[in-house]
Design a protein that fits this description.
By secondary structure, this protein is mainly α. The protein folds into 2 domains: 17-71, Ubiquitin-like (UB roll), CATH 3.10.20; 79-147, DNA polymerase, domain 1 (Orthogonal Bundle), CATH 1.10.150. It has helices at residues 17-24, 79-86, 96-109, 115-121, 133-147, and strands spanning 43-46, 49-52, 66-67. A 3-stranded antiparallel sheet has the order 2-1-3, covered by helices on one side. Helix 2 (79-86) packs across helix 5. The termini are far apart.
Length: 151
């Protein structure tokens, strides 16, 4: 499953997932950064867990559930994306897809994440613009909105 849809394609056994997504499926929201699993720009959710798609061989996802940034909220902004906008957590935007997906995985696994939980969850995602404060606040805001608590 890719972004909630059953998909099939022939894949070169040497092709890495980030290249397959961007070049073959034209899902360019997944960014190419370092290529060695250090920056998190290529983060996707595989079976609900954040992974660096530059380290995953594309054929290995057969029969698994994959979520890219394109599948995060469909055609409309979700509460997580809206929180990033409202808190000024988006600057150049290069790290944003990976940050959002790492945040989604955290919010799916933890009802009320602490600042420490958030910082740990996004520790594999590098941002050169925001200093992380805005991103942490955005994820805290998203957790509040999701629960219906006042922001």
């Amino acid at each position: 499953m890719l972004n909630g849809e059953a998909r099939s394609a022939q894949v070169d056994t040497r092709e890495i997932l980030v290249d397959f997504l961007r070049n073959r499926l034209h899902l360019t929201g997944t960014k190419i950064g370092c290529g060695i699993g250090e920056c998190g720009a290529c983060t996707v959710l595989l079976d609900g867990q954040p992974v660096n798609s530059c380290l995953v061989i594309a054929v290995s996802i057969d029969g698994r559930e994959l979520l890219t940034i394109e599948g995060l909220a469909g055609d409309e902004l979700g509460f997580l994306q809206q929180a990033f906008i409202e808190e000024g957590a988006v600057q150049c935007g290069y790290c944003t897809p990976g940050m959002l997906l790492s945040a989604k995985a955290l919010l799916e696994s933890k009802e009320r994440p602490t600042e420490k939980d958030i910082r740990e969850a996004i520790s594999g995602n590098l941002c050169r613009c925001t200093g992380y404060g805005h991103i942490v606040r955005a994820i805290l805001r998203a957790a509040q909105v999701r629960e219906g608590r006042p922001v």
